[in-house]
């Protein structure tokens, strides 16, 4: 059966739920280590610029497609441009969500394992070697695959029964708590001796550290953090009422995303420099630094456990949206059981995620163009599929979608003027596509 049409109960519920879909591994896990590997402050500044100038207009565009059609990702494009090839954008999004979730769930499994271990206090110990602990967990194929499986099972259960009411209610409580815990962690981090070196690394731009590849990574990170380019937000906004301003909602999500990224950097880099760790540590950076910081706090084990559980929720809300896109795409037009489709989709994601889970152990020496399977999948999705998806969406909304509908959706709720609409339209038609193409060509050394 087709899923019953649902709506968000409030504007704040939609914004926090959309933020939950966006603020997961992108802002909390991936942003710090990508910043550490790409020069610090210059990368952060570029990330902010791309988020505001490119990511925000795309987020508004996805909201317009979703609410304007009232459909999930694939059907939205078919409804708005029937008998045209543009429906491939929805299929591109489903494929992107599938690949993204395959390696995303591996890290989700790491967070889940850390959360389970933190409850009885098995992480923070006297004389503990946190880099070694991370290596032991990710280096064990049974543990990584078990974490992957458990993480996907949670997703299947939630998506099988529908996620809108659960996510909205939980987001209203848990997303603000995540902000509070991050602020507490930042306050502690900046009090360590040597913390200022980390703050300078993070906030003081050194543009000599940037490369053409770093620019592509910053663009990809802005899309990854906002969950744009694979039509996640098309599905979410299809449940939104007409009395909500889409640009205002998108602005709120973008600001929260930048703020969480700022908090993540201020929580991580002062500790990295204070304890002589390597900022370019890579994907394991967060799992090494967080226990180190919490170990220096009173009741650190309790705070670490609570923070990891909240972090796990943020990761899950993002993965729910990915599995929801895959599931809804295959239940929309045919009389299929949502539960069965969610299970089958989850099983395929699990199978696809196994090579990425084994990239840190038995398949560590297997490389694709010099990258592990995990890193290659991440690169493909973050730096190729997401920017390309954003390019397709910009061209679709800017040139192919009915412009009267686009304008009506943008100006709905009467919070923005026609001048704001015209400015956004110029960005989505010209600046966004041109910037994405230039960054792509630069990264390929074509220009």
From TrEMBL:
Keywords linked to the UniProt accession: Membrane, Symport, Transmembrane, Transmembrane helix, Transport
Primary localisation category: membrane
InterPro entries per UniProt: Na/ntran_symport, SNS_sf, YocR/YhdH-like
Cited Pfam families: SNF
Coiled coil: none
Listed transmembrane segments: 12-31, 43-65, 85-117, 137-161, 173-195, 215-236, 248-277, 297-320, 341-359, 379-399, 420-444
GO molecular function ontology, one term from the record: symporter activity
Membrane topology listed for this record: Multi-pass membrane protein
Cell location: Membrane
One Gene Ontology cellular component: membrane
Family: Belongs to the sodium:neurotransmitter symporter (SNF) (TC 2.A.22) family.
Protein name: Transporter
Organism from which the protein derives: Oceanobacillus bengalensis
């Amino acid at each position: 059966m087709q899923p019953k049409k649902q709506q968000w109960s409030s504007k704040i519920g939609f914004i926090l739920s959309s933020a939950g879909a966006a603020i997961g591994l992108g802002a909390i896990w991936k942003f710090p280590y990508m910043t550490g590997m790409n020069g610090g402050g210059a990368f952060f500044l570029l990330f902010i610029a791309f988020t505001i100038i490119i990511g925000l207009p795309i987020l508004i565009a996805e909201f317009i497609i979703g609410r304007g059609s009232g459909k999930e990702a694939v059907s939205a494009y078919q409804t708005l441009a029937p008998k045209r090839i543009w429906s491939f954008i929805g299929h591109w999004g489903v494929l992107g969500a599938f690949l993204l979730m395959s390696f995303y769930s591996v890290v989700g499994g790491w967070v889940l394992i850390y959360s389970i271990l933190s409850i009885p206090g098995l992480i923070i110990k006297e004389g503990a070697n946190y880099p070694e602990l991370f290596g032991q967990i990710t280096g064990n194929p049974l543990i990584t695959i078990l974490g992957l499986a458990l993480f996907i099972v949670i997703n299947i259960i939630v998506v099988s029964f529908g996620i809108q009411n659960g996510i909205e209610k939980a987001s209203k409580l848990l997303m603000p708590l995540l902000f509070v815990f991050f602020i507490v962690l930042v306050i502690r981090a900046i009090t360590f001796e040597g913390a200022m070196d980390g703050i300078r690394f993070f906030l003081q731009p050194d543009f000599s550290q940037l490369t053409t590849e770093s620019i592509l990574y910053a663009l990809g990170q802005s899309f990854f953090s906002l969950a744009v380019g694979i039509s996640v937000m098309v599905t979410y906004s299809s449940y939104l009422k007409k009395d909500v301003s889409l640009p205002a909602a998108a602005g709120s999500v973008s600001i929260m995303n930048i703020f969480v990224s700022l908090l993540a950097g201020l929580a991580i880099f002062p500790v990295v420099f204070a304890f002589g760790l390597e900022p370019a540590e890579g994907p394991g950076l967060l799992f090494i630094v967080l226990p180190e910081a919490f170990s220096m706090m009173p009741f650190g084990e309790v705070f670490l456990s609570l923070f990891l559980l909240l972090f796990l929720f943020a990761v899950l809300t993002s993965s729910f949206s990915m599995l929801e896109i895959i599931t809804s795409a295959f239940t929309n037009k045919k009389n299929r059981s949502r539960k069965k489709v969610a299970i089958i989709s989850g099983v395929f994601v699990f199978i696809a995620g196994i090579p990425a889970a084994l990239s840190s152990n038995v398949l560590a020496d297997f490389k694709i163009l010099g990258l592990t399977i995990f890193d290659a999948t991440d690169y493909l999705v973050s730096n190729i599929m997401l920017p390309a998806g954003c390019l397709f969406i910009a061209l679709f909304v800017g040139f192919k979608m009915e412009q009267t509908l686009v304008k009506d959706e943008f100006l709905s709720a009467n919070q923005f003027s026609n001048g704001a609409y015209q400015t956004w339209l110029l960005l989505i038609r010209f600046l966004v596509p041109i910037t994405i193409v230039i960054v792509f060509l630069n990264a390929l050394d074509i220009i």
